[in-house]
Amino acid sequence: MHISVANYGDTEELLTIEIAPDLTIKDLKAIIESESDFGIKADEMNLYFDGKLLRNENKTLEGSNLKDYDVVTCQRKPRMCFLRDCD
Q: Are the C-beta atoms of residues 2 and 18 closer than 8 Å to each other?
């Protein structure tokens, strides 16, 4: 299957990945990290499909209702820090 990945906030940058439907959301994040120029590490990434956060990283793409050429949005997870620790 092919999944297109949009980098949140960048309407021009779109990555299309060929990936097996039995791979997991966690696998997809790792592939996005290695193949994109988004600058987001897999563990810092939130993926959204159809306006909803794909929370369960162990769910397969097929189990997440993703189909060929669907678009997923990638966004950096919000940083959690204490005021004195933030730069």
A: yes
For the chain, 87 residues long, give each residue's pLDDT as a single digit of tens: 999 999 987 667 789 999 999 999 999 999 999 999 999 999 999 999 999 999 999 999 999 999 999 999 999 998 766 555 555
Neighbours of 23 (CB within 10 A): 16
Please, are residues 36 and 15 in contact by the beta-carbon 8 Å criterion? yes
- Measured CA to CA, the distance from residue 75 to residue 87 in angstroms comes to 20
pTM of the predicted model, to two decimals? 0.86
CA separation for the pair 31, 62 (Å, rounded): 16
Domains in the chain, start-ordered, CATH in brackets? Answer: 2-85 (3.10.20.90)
Structure tokens at 69: 């050429």
